[in-house]
Automatic annotation (TrEMBL):
<dbReference type="InterPro" id="IPR019546">
    <property type="entry name" value="TAT_signal_bac_arc"/>
</dbReference>
<dbReference type="InterPro" id="IPR006311">
    <property type="entry name" value="TAT_signal"/>
</dbReference>
<dbReference type="InterPro" id="IPR002372">
    <property type="entry name" value="PQQ_rpt_dom"/>
</dbReference>
<dbReference type="Pfam" id="PF13360">
    <property type="entry name" value="PQQ_2"/>
</dbReference>
<dbReference type="InterPro" id="IPR004843">
    <property type="entry name" value="Calcineurin-like_PHP"/>
</dbReference>
<feature type="domain" description="Calcineurin-like phosphoesterase">
    <location>
        <begin position="56"/>
        <end position="233"/>
    </location>
</feature>
<dbReference type="InterPro" id="IPR011047">
    <property type="entry name" value="Quinoprotein_ADH-like_sf"/>
</dbReference>
<protein>
    <submittedName>
        <fullName>PQQ-binding-like beta-propeller repeat protein</fullName>
    </submittedName>
</protein>
<feature type="domain" description="Pyrrolo-quinoline quinone repeat">
    <location>
        <begin position="472"/>
        <end position="575"/>
    </location>
</feature>
<dbReference type="InterPro" id="IPR015943">
    <property type="entry name" value="WD40/YVTN_repeat-like_dom_sf"/>
</dbReference>
<feature type="domain" description="Pyrrolo-quinoline quinone repeat">
    <location>
        <begin position="599"/>
        <end position="712"/>
    </location>
</feature>
<dbReference type="Pfam" id="PF00149">
    <property type="entry name" value="Metallophos"/>
</dbReference>
<dbReference type="InterPro" id="IPR029052">
    <property type="entry name" value="Metallo-depent_PP-like"/>
</dbReference>
<dbReference type="InterPro" id="IPR018391">
    <property type="entry name" value="PQQ_b-propeller_rpt"/>
</dbReference>
Length: 737
């Protein structure tokens, strides 16, 4: 495990993806390391106190959504913490969404609501609201609270904070953190473990794409409980030897969970109750039982493990499984790969028991060729479950043919950059890989290790240089043929936007946003100008040769003079009433487009707005959540816009009129369409890995292949006969089309 001093001095992303640390009660008191992180909670977590006979007592709350502009909410939060303090818990677990959008004032407002005597006992893990809308949010979380993944021991129980949040994205992914989790549980030995994180797992919860991999990782260990939030309601699930309790959100009212240990002759049990404060401080609180978490033998454990197999032939999935001795029923369903950040209550089809095994079939006639998951669920006599997933490869016919895979680690989250026959992919692991594509083959040109990359690289206008943005605060220029470093510029904050490169009189200008600043550099890396972008920009700028246009986190689109960076005008894209909503309903993550008419297109989660490049005056507006997927100009008269709900619209760039509209994929986040110049076909990857072909003349959609079971937020590239795509499993894939 990494020591705390190394994490504090090594920079975000250099130790591990999120800095997973094992923190014993002694380790929590290391003052020097604490100073390095800022207002680090102190060393109050330790053995349960003797006056309770060593029994644990602690509090769990979640989804406080602190926001200084929400006075009633902050008063409610202060009231909850004021009620928690006299309970004198050993510690408090916070399951994330501490603030509305991870800003400094939100964290400060949250801190101000907590009594001084309680602060050092609170343990936090981030939610999507801490990480989704601010490129510096992870660093800010670490300054306030320390690492986002860690563990500690208290009262003979091992507690683990897990962080599957993804930078600038909504859903969760454990990815490479699974190795750290396994190592931490190895060190804990036979001590019962309880995890806490933001997203609830398994069952109908589709918030973390690889929660099945987590369950496989922890299966050999004595993990008995999970506390979670996110869904803003109380929910209890018993599966795979553990009890999961999703807590009601404190944002909506005076709620928290009280957890006390009961020691029986046979077992130790954590008793979970929901406390609801009265309407007035003088009113007695209401206490309701929620769940009991046994620390000995966990629920559903005798139903598993499940060893399953699946094969598909002529549209029928034939299944077989061996379950645990306590299984009284085994059922199966096709994993809803297209469900994204939501719940799914699909039908479970019972299997038939024959001797010691179970068998049955599922209707697979609707499955595309490619890789799918099948879920098995074994049930014991108490109604507790054991879940297990297996993959099945459907070898049907499709227009596309997978040809090669190249693992580069981490998550390939940014769009791929292409020039001529060269494609460049970059990963959150820091690995940057360049390939030359010829026919159906690929040739590795070079690989480099930089800081974590979450957005696309960009080529110089002549294709000789690649500019790579990194979360380690740098923009690097690499020679495109061999990856050698030409220059590196430290921009003082994470660079989590895609560079835009413009030819100005035969000379390149590189414009890139880093947090609340917009920078313009020349081809040698010299800083030409720097301007403010209110709050942040995480998309990509555009230019008409005179002006630079960028979307900002204050809900506005901005124009700057390309020559000196002076602000020219701004346009408000929404009339939301507060800072938080202006941000999330604004163009903060938009790839800005300059249309053939000269108009500038800003997109948000509510609409696309074309404005005059000189004044910002609105020319046209259409409804739709077009912000995330980059637009594609088919010709001078057709612009394709893709909503996050997978609808592709063909738009007249002059008037904004829709020529056609089609449901192409279930969801599309940050991965936009690409066009095959050979035949005009438009290809689009859905977030869940579904590949479709679109006829740009009519909008007719042909669903082609389920390429992988990972999510993708990366716009692919098409070079000759090959479609190249990267996914959150860190694998770059080449497909002939």
């Amino acid at each position: 495990m990494t020591d705390l001093n190394a994490a504090a001095s090594g920079g975000v992303g250099r130790v591990s993806r999120r800095g997973f640390l094992g923190l014993s009660a002694l380790g929590l008191g290391v003052g020097a390391a604490a100073t390095g992180w800022g207002p680090w909670p102190g060393a109050a977590v330790g053995a349960a106190r003797a006056d309770d006979g060593g029994a644990l007592r602690f509090v769990v709350l979640t989804d406080t959504h602190a926001n200084e502009e929400e006075g009633e909410r902050m008063a409610n939060l202060a009231r909850v913490f004021a009620a928690v303090e006299p309970e004198d818990p050993d510690f408090v677990l916070h399951c994330g969404d501490i603030t509305d959008f991870g800003d400094e004032t939100g964290f400060a407002a949250y801190r101000a609501a907590i009594p001084a005597g309680l602060w050092s006992r609170i343990r936090h893990t981030p939610g999507n609201h801490e990480i989704r809308w601010d490129i510096t949010a992870r660093e800010r979380f670490q300054r306030w609270f320390g690492p986002t993944s860690y563990s500690f021991d208290a009262g003979g129980v091992h507690f683990m904070a897990l962080d599957p949040t993804q930078t600038l994205q909504e859903p969760g992914l454990f990815g490479g953190d699974l190795d750290d989790i396994r190592s931490d549980l190895d060190a804990a030995g036979d001590v019962p473990s309880v995890m806490f994180l933001h997203f609830p797992l398994a069952g109908r919860n589709h918030y973390v794409n690889d929660d099945d991999a987590l369950l496989q990782t922890i299966a050999p260990y004595r993990v008995r409980g999970i506390f979670a939030g996110h869904i803003h309601r109380s929910e209890v699930d018993r599966f795979n030897g553990l009890t999961q309790v999703a807590a009601i959100n404190t944002r909506s009212g005076p709620f928290y969970l009280r957890v006390t240990e009961r020691r029986d002759a046979e077992d130790r049990v954590l008793v979970v109750e929901q406390v609801t404060l009265g309407a007035l401080d003088t009113d007695a609180p209401t206490v309701q039982p929620v769940a009991e978490i046994p620390l000995g033998v966990g629920p559903g454990r005798t139903a598993g493990p499940v060893s399953g197999g699946a094969r598909i032939d002529r549209g029928t999935l034939t299944l077989s499984a061996v379950a645990g001795p306590g299984a009284v029923e085994v059922a199966a369903q096709i994993y809803a790969q297209d469900v994204f950040g939501a719940v799914f209550d699909g039908e479970w089809v019972p299997l038939t028991r024959t001797g010691g095994s179970w068998s049955g079939t599922l209707d697979g006639s609707a499955l595309l060729p490619g890789v799918h998951r099948v879920r098995f669920r074994a049930v014991d006599g108490t109604g507790a479950f054991w879940y297990e997933n297996v993959t099945v490869d459907h070898r049907g016919k499709s227009r596309s043919t997978p040809k090669w895979e190249l693992p580069i680690g981490g998550q390939i989250q940014g769009a791929l950059a292409a020039f001529g026959s060269t494609v460049v992919a970059a990963s959150s692991s820091g690995r940057v890989a360049a390939l030359r594509i010829t026919g159906a083959a690929r040739h590795r040109l070079w690989e480099r290790d930089l800081g974590p990359v979450h957005r696309a690289a960009a080529f110089s206008t002549d294709g000789t240089v690649v500019f790579v943005p990194s979360a380690d605060h740098t923009l690097s220029a690499l020679t495109a043929t061999n990856g050698q470093e030409r220059w590196v510029v430290d921009l003082g904050r994470p660079v989590l936007s895609t560079p835009a490169v413009f030819d100005v009189g035969g000379v390149d200008r590189i414009v890139v946003a880093a947090g609340d600043r917009l920078f313009c550099l020349d081809g040698a890396g010299a800083m030409l100008w720097e301007s403010e972008v209110p709050r942040l920009s995480a998309g990509r700028a555009a230019s008409d040769g005179q002006r630079v246009f960028v979307g900002a986190g204050d809900g506005r689109g901005y124009a700057y003079d390309l020559a000196d960076g002076s602000a020219l005008w701004s346009v408000l894209t929404n009339v939301r009433p507060d800072t938080y909503r202006q941000l999330i309903y604004g163009p903060w993550d938009d790839w800005i487009e300059v249309l053939p008419t000269g108009a500038v297109l800003f997109s948000t989660v509510a609409n696309a707005i074309a404005v005059d490049p000189e004044t910002g005056a609105e020319r046209w507006r259409i409804d739709g959540s077009y912000i995330f997927a980059p637009a594609l100009l088919i010709d001078e008269g057709t612009l394709l816009l893709t909503t996050e709900w997978g609808i592709v619209d063909a738009i007249d760039p002059v008037t904004g009129a829709r020529r056609w509209s089609t449901q192409a994929v279930p969801r599309a986040l940050n991965a936009g369409p690409v066009r095959d110049a050979r035949n005009g076909t438009v290809w689009l990857f859905g977030t869940g890995g579904r590949l479709v072909a679109i006829d740009p003349a009519t909008g007719a959609v042909t669903a082609d292949r389920q390429l992988f079971t990972a999510n993708t937020f990366s716009t692919p590239a098409i070079l000759g006969r090959q479609l190249i795509v990267g996914a959150q499993d860190g694998v770059l894939r080449g497909i002939t089309v």
